[in-house]
Specification:
It contains 6 helices and 22 strands. The protein is globular and about 60 Å long. Helices cover 13% and strands 34% of the residues. By secondary structure, the chain is mainly beta. Strand 18 and strand 19 form a beta hairpin.
Length: 314
């Protein structure tokens, strides 16, 4: 008997950020706390400081960590066991430009007592002219970039990409990056919260103070030969296939199984509306289809339904 006959829904965890806004309520119907700039909604998370909690069905009230450790095969099938669920999935609302930053590769993370982080961005919405900042315009040395940081010209070396809704980017650990203003992103990432900020565009706060940076750590992580990376070119429905995660975008023109029996999948409704096992989902809704879920077919509930589907390769 499967442990749950329903797709699992979770309570989002909202994170206040100085660069955030209210677009998650406006575009995705999130019930944000009033009068707060929300930059991130952690939708699927298993960390010591933050836990997704099931909101429906017989598993209501259980944490993602409990599902991962106590009901692993029923929920996640043959995915390799690990201390925690290996992914963290967020929505990001950037109403202002974020600082330039980097996440550490595995080898460097260990020396810095941090966590490695590779990720993928999907642009769910973008204002006209919105940009992402990724990699460099040309190869340069660490010394040259340090010099640019000191004299405030680091932005001159950063590769800019104009984006629109539907674009996506893969960000291996070590890639210098920043989210530009006017982007609403889906972020699928390694379960990590290690970020090293290296440059904040010479901004100061109301007191004339600069934001805290982590220049020494960042310089140990950055790939200085990462030149002019481009958006992902989809291969049919496939956006990214990596050892950590696989991401597909589906246009739901007909009913279909979300995954074979014995495999789990995480789904985000992007546009339109869909139904799985009698539960309806609208844009901004996430759910986890357990590996043992018998009723695995998803149906469109209107025209123009699209979704992101995230799985872990086994």
């Amino acid at each position: 008997m499967p442990i749950s006959n329903l797709p699992l829904c979770f309570e989002p965890i909202f994170q206040e950020r100085i660069w955030g806004g209210r677009k998650l309520a406006e575009l995705f119907g999130k019930k944000l706390p009033p009068n707060v700039r929300i930059g991130e909604s952690w939708e699927i998370v298993d960390r010591p400081e933050a836990q997704s909690v099931v909101t429906n069905g017989p598993l209501k009230g259980k944490t993602l960590h409990n599902l991962w450790t106590q009901h692993h095969r029923d929920i996640f099938g043959n995915v390799a066991e690990a201390p925690r669920f290996p992914l963290l999935i967020k929505l990001l609302d950037a109403q202002e430009k974020l600082s330039l930053q980097v996440h550490p590769p595995e080898a460097v993370a260990k020396t810095l007592d941090g966590e490695a982080k590779t990720e993928c961005w999907y642009v769910a919405a973008a204002q006209p002219g919105a940009e992402l900042f990724l990699g460099f315009t040309r190869s340069l040395t660490r010394d040259k970039f340090e010099e640019a940081l000191r004299d405030g010209t680091a932005a001159d070396y950063v590769h800019q990409i104009r984006v629109k809704a539907g674009d996506s980017m893969f960000l291996p650990a070590g890639r210098l990056h920043a989210v530009g203003a006017g982007n609403l992103l889906v972020e699928i990432q390694q379960n990590s919260d290690t970020t090293y900020r290296v440059f904040d565009w010479n901004r100061v706060d109301d007191q004339g103070e600069r934001r805290q940076l982590h220049v020494d750590q960042a310089l140990q992580c950055i790939d200085f030969n990462d030149v002019a990376p481009e958006p992902i070119t989809p291969s049919g429905e496939l956006l990214v296939r990596h050892e950590l995660f696989e991401v597909q975008k589906w246009s739901l023109d007909a009913q279909r199984a979300i995954a074979p029996l014995g495999q789990f999948a995480i789904v985000l409704c992007l546009t339109g509306a869909l139904r799985c096992a009698g539960v309806d989902f609208t844009p901004g809704d996430f759910f986890l289809a357990p590996a043992s879920l018998r009723e695995r077919t998803i149906h469109s509930r209107g025209e123009g339904t699209s979704l992101l589907r995230v799985t872990i390769p086994v």
